[in-house]
């Protein structure tokens, strides 16, 4: 059944809005994925703040051509049945959601992605992004690294204080 021109315009406008606000867009081939699996993927993505869209590649190309950041992007990889995962809040959430789902479902194969500047990412790049720690984990690691010298000094001073107190106590008992 053919899609009406109004419906196509609505889909293009929706995809343009998603891409304009996107920090990362991941696309993957999903041929052979069951409806139940697709619903599970959508639920997992929704929990992470990721929007999942199934849109014809031709309409995605039109949406990309309307945005300055994506005008020069190579879209030759947009072939076959593709699903698009988009996040406007997290730079790696779409990659993490799609990669974790692809590990348990062989029917989903990550094909690539687009950065917010229109840069084309290969499937290997997307998988590498997915393996990065989360933003909160990275912040915690940086804070721990910055506080490490403070903890070391505190431990050294408290160790000397304990040794001094032990020495005073030993002197007082003898």
Give the tags.
five-stranded antiparallel beta sheet, 174 residues, Alpha-Beta Plaits, 2 domains, single chain, alpha+beta
Give a structural overview.
- The protein is an alpha+beta fold and about 170 residues long.
- It is built from 6 helices and 5 strands.
- A 5-stranded antiparallel sheet has the order 2-3-1-4-5, sandwiched between helices.
- Helix 1 (about 5-20) packs across helix 3.
- The longest helix has about 40 residues, at about 135-174.
- It is elongated, with a radius of gyration of 25 Å.
- About 25% of the residues are buried.
- The model has no long low-confidence stretch (mean pLDDT about 85).
Task: Produce a short descriptive summary.
This protein has helices at residues 5-21, 35-47, 57-65, 93-104, 123-130, 135-173; strands at 24-29, 51-53, 82-87, 109-115, 120-122. The protein has 174 residues and is an alpha+beta fold.
CATH class of the largest domain: Alpha Beta
How far apart are the first and last residues' alpha carbons, in Å? 98 Å
Using only C-alpha atoms, the radius of gyration works out to 25 Å
Order the strands across the largest sheet as they lie in space. 2-3-1-4-5
* Net shape: elongated
- What is the CATH architecture term of the largest domain? 2-Layer Sandwich
Total separate domains: 2
How much β-strand is present in the residues? 5-15%
| Poorly predicted segments | none
Please write the string of helix (H) and strand (E) elements: HEHEHEHEEHH
CATH H-level superfamily of the largest domain: Ribosomal protein L10, N-terminal RNA-binding domain
